Amino acid sequence: MILYTSMPEELIFQPDEKVFQNRMTLQVGGCSLLVEKTTEAQFRVVQVLSSDPSHYLMEAYTPGQILSNLS
């Protein structure tokens, strides 16, 4: 079987469901981000999910960055 997708392999074939329980997609400033909830009010950026190349150049959306105050 050959599967062509832009999604990471870990999202399709999840090895352990517990790893992904805190992950979700958020819209921040018009950009879709895959984030991991670290605390009630903070999220860590895992991946940018956008077709706009300028979103990949924004330092605030770099994987590993912490987002807070998203109200």
Automatic annotation (TrEMBL):
Pfam families, sorted: YlzJ
InterPro entries in alphabetical order: YlzJ (IPR025619)
Protein name: YlzJ-like protein
Lineage of source species: Bacteria, Bacillati, Bacillota, Bacilli, Bacillales
